[in-house]
Amino acid sequence: MNILKNTFAERNGINLPIYGVPKSNLSEFTTTEKDKNRGTSKFPPPQFRLLDEDILREVAATQMLKAEVMDQEAFVCVMDDY
Length: 82
Prior knowledge:
This protein is α+β, with helices and mostly antiparallel strands. Helix content is 33%, strand content 15%.
């Protein structure tokens, strides 16, 4: 999981949002083809976002997100393990 988060952050400059949903049935948060064709997306609400999973610190500035790497050493350690 850390490799995915680090690669996403490196390529996009933002965190890969990780959510913790307290329901076993995720249909409420699953975007179907019909939803896509209608232009809707069913992401979990922001309160379900697991900010502890972020590897970049996000700072709101003029409604734009600026990101900086919090722990580059952890990324190197993860990559060394594989």
